[in-house]
Structures are given as C-alpha cells and as structure tokens.
Amino acid sequence: MTTMQAAQEIAAQMQAGSKIYGEGDTEVRALDGVTAEFEKGVFTAIMGPSGSGKSTLLHCVAGLDVLTGGEVFISGIELGSLKDKELTLLRREKVGFVFQAFNLIPTLSARENVLLPLLIAGDDHDEAWFDQVVGILGLGDRLSHRPSELSGGQQQRVAAARALVARPDIIFADEPSGNLDSKSAAELLDFMRRAVKEFGQTIVMVTHDPVAASYADRVVVLEDGKIVDELHDPTTDSVIDRMRQFGA
Ligand SMILES: Nc1ncnc2c1ncn2[C@@H]1O[C@H](COP(=O)(O)OP(=O)(O)OP(=O)(O)O)[C@@H](O)[C@H]1O
Ligand SMILES: [Mg+2]
To answer: I need a surface site. Which of 1, 47, 208, 225 has the fewest CB within 10 A?
Structure first.
C-alpha cells in the first residue's frame, strides 16, 4: 500500500515577503525574506522580541499593509493582484481580526458590533453559536452596552466575539489576551483553541506570552524580520526555553 501525504489546504501564505519602512539612514527592514504557510484548521502563534516584525507580518498577511517585495495569498488569491475594492471585499468575506486597537463602532451596541460583519455580508447568523460565543466570553449581560460603556477588556472580548461569530476563513489576532485578566485570557484562549479543534477555524495569533502560545498548535519564531525557528505542540516550558535564547 502506498501512502500519499494529503495536500494540506492553505488558508494563507507569504512567499519571500519583505517589508521596508523608511529609506536611506532611517530604513528599517521589518520583514526580510519571510516564507510562511498557515494551514486550515491550525492555530499558529507568532513570537519574537519586540521589533522583530510580528505585527508587520500579521498586517501584511491579513492584507492590511502591503509588502515591499514578495507575495501574500489568502485562500489562494494573491493580494497584489487585487484592486483596493477587491481587497476590501476579500478581507470582509474571508478574514477576521482581533486587534487591541481594532475599532468597534461607538454608536452600536455590543450585540450589533458582534453581528455587524454578518449584517454587512447579508448572512444569517446562528443564534445558538452567537449565544455560545458571547457566553464563553462573558458578554451575555453586556450586549446592549455601547463600547464606551465597556471596560477595555470587555471591548476586546467584543472584538474577539465579532471575529469568532462570523467564522471567517482565517482569524488574525495581535495580543488578543493582552488586556485581559488571567481568567478572561484563559477563557478566550481556550475558546479560540476549541474553535480550531471543533470547527476547523484557522487562527494566527501574535503573542509575547508563553502561556498564551501554549494554546497554539505551533509557534513561529521571528527575529530581525526573519523566521528563525518553529515549535510544534508547544508547552509553556518549551516556549520559555526557546525565548531564553534571545537573552531578553
Ligand atoms: N509604520 C512604520 N514606520 C516605520 N517603521 C516601522 C513602522 N511600523 C513598524 N516599524 C518598524 O518595523 C520593525 C518591526 O515592527 P513590528 O511592529 O512589526 O514589531 P513587533 O515584533 O510587532 O514588536 P512588538 O512586540 O513591540 O509589538 C520595528 O523596528 C519597527 O520600529
Ligand atoms: Mg507588535
């Protein structure tokens, strides 16, 4: 019997990506020849020292920022081939974001903010799934509040719920648990992991926290704009051991 490795479907990938900010004396090479694949149904953490290019990588793969060189594909579509409008549409249809500074609409309630992407897409939502997401994120009694009436951590959880309820092809999260107390952080991370395991959600998360990284299936380690290592089935201890090598 011959076995053939099933070609794993790729949700997003970067090919030889480089990103240069500024020019001349002030030039910064934030990404320097990065090739990375994000398989469907996999939870990836991106780690590395401050300034190593983590957020730049995330923003470029998510189509929020444009590479100086190289290519990005989301669901097989090369982003550089798209017009602005097409890129906006692709982001709206296929991508979810959990960013600390990612704006909620101030005039809408938490419930409306969570459901907004589905409303825009004209999709019905699954009320049971909505209830599960907001319940696990502890937002059940905050749904009629506007963002200004919520704490920073609650706003962050609304942004997380918004991404998770829509079940996009891929979710990008930059320090999603960073503003949360440890109990809320554990609940959010646990929920993200369950969304991956039980529903095949694809998640790419930047984090500084070895505990948060241990929820992922793999850790991609960046240093000076390059991928220098990858850990599989990380544990808090294996991540801490790897981070020690930075001497930070
Ligand atoms: N808009 C910009 N203009 C100029 N330089 C930038 C810009 N954005 C990022 N950089 C530089 O690019 C490099 C990578 O930045 P990036 O934000 O990706 O790092 P990071 O790994 O996310 O860091 P942190 O852990 O502190 O969030 C840094 O040297 C940063 O100063
Ligand atoms: Mg960053």
So the answer is: 1
